[in-house]
Amino acid sequence: MSNLAPLKIGITCYPTVGGSGILATALGEELAARGHEVHFISYERPFRLPTGQPRLYFHPVAINHYGLFKYPDYTLPLSVRMAEVSREFQLDVLHVHYAVPHATAAILARHMLPPELQPRVVTTLHGTDTTLLGCDPGYRPAIHHALTASDAVTTVSNFLKRETERVLGFAGPTEVIHNFFTPRSPRRSRAEVRQELGLRDEFVIFHSSNLRPLKRIDVLLETVARLQPRAAVKLLLLAGGGFAHYAADVFRLGLEDMVILRENVTDIEDYLQVADLGLFTSDSESFCLSILEAMFFGCPSVATRVGGIPEVVEDGQSGRLAPAGDAIALATAVQNLMDHPERRRQLGEAAQQRAQENFTAAVIVPQYEALYRRVSGS
Ligand code: GMT
Prior knowledge:
By secondary structure, this protein is of the alpha/beta class. The protein is built from 15 helices and 13 strands. The protein has a 7-stranded parallel beta sheet with strand order 3-2-1-4-5-6-7, with helices on both faces. Strands 10-9-8-11-12-13 form a 6-stranded parallel beta sheet, with helices on both faces. The longest helix has 18 residues, at 341-358. Residues 14, 18-21, 23, 126-129, 156, 179, 210, 214, 284-289 line the site of ligand GMT.
């Protein structure tokens, strides 16, 4: 804790499985541990948010269903809740993660309050809020407006900063603050987890994501299907649901015995400790928090050379990168590391060291704190 007065910070994020919500949750926890008061505002409690931690609160947004609305509205009730929480707790800052609709709701909330109660709005862009929705004419002007009206805008990679300038034509100042991860101690031993997963001595390939189309689960499965010998490989897939969509691919590729699926996992550390290699096949990725999580456990990854991934993984030093959509190149890289454990161990060590030097809470959270103090003058 510093000598400066603690801040009161509102955080809004998606509460479900996904990097932006996970990062926002971890940031809130770290801020609370550093003495700040943190108020999460969302339609559900973020799935990794611990209960009973001092200075960490959750305020649900109630959404009513009205027959007149074909599509339920979230933005307005969210903005009203943000204004209520800001007023009641006199928030210094509202930090929204993922622009749509959170940044717009925050700007609206601010306008609902008298000047002396208005929090500063910090918007963190995480990825598809720029790269996908930023290209959609139905969203682009609203995102641009919300960024322009924010007191500060951050992106999680240099890549995303460039894309935000290019795609959205956003010329305002944007600060790059990379993601971080704070691994907890696994709750169970490696042996217990291996037993739960039914592992003998197979090579464990790890993937965790929300399985959205851009994660290219089809390429992931095709890559795994090319590995030899098949009996020696398991794909451990942590997801938030939706894998049934790929059942036909699993069947077509004959992977039924190779895939181990776990959904909505909160104790990710339990599983990371048994992973031998990460595999990430996205077509687009502003950062890829999952790669970083694996790096902390000395688990290197084979990933696609897209977006901000090269800012996380240096090809050949702390992991391996291959062209997007190229299952042959990806499988060659994976097979090579399966067949050369010493090389894999070196990459894993370098990955862990890189993570500990660059992407810890101790390195990253003070950058957010400094930003909050700058915009709020506190
Ligand atoms: O932007 C998204 O698609 C959603 C977001 C999420 O909630 O998973 O993912 C983004 O934010 C993560 C945390 O900053 C990054 O690690 C992911 O790379 C990024 N996803 C994409 O860029 C596709």
